[in-house]
Amino acid sequence: APPSTSAAPARGRTGTDGMQLIPCPWCGPRAHIEFRYQCDADVVPQRSHTETEVEWRDRTWLRTNHIGWHREIWQHADGCRGWLVVTRNNLTHGVAKTVPLGPAGLEPTS
Hints:
Layout: E1 21-24, E2 28-31, E3 36-40, H1 53-61, E4 69-75, E5 83-89, E6 95-100
Antiparallel strand pairs: 1-2, 3-4, 4-5, 5-6
């Protein structure tokens, strides 16, 4: 048979090889390997003016890591380089939603 001249499907971006897809607000669904995890969105490691160094350390590093849904800050490092808040289940790796990082993305959840 003659060699095929059709392009091979893009691996990773399509999710056909078992990769987790994260929906980028700007680029659409992309493979998780294009993204870089930054931190827990509800424990942003920035010290407030009213917090002591010990309080900041305890809040940032000595906290309980829960299982289930939570919000994380990610960057689409190998794509548009945009920053986003990903609501993700850390047990199943399911992604409920993504929003651009900004004032609305870091508002407390109820």
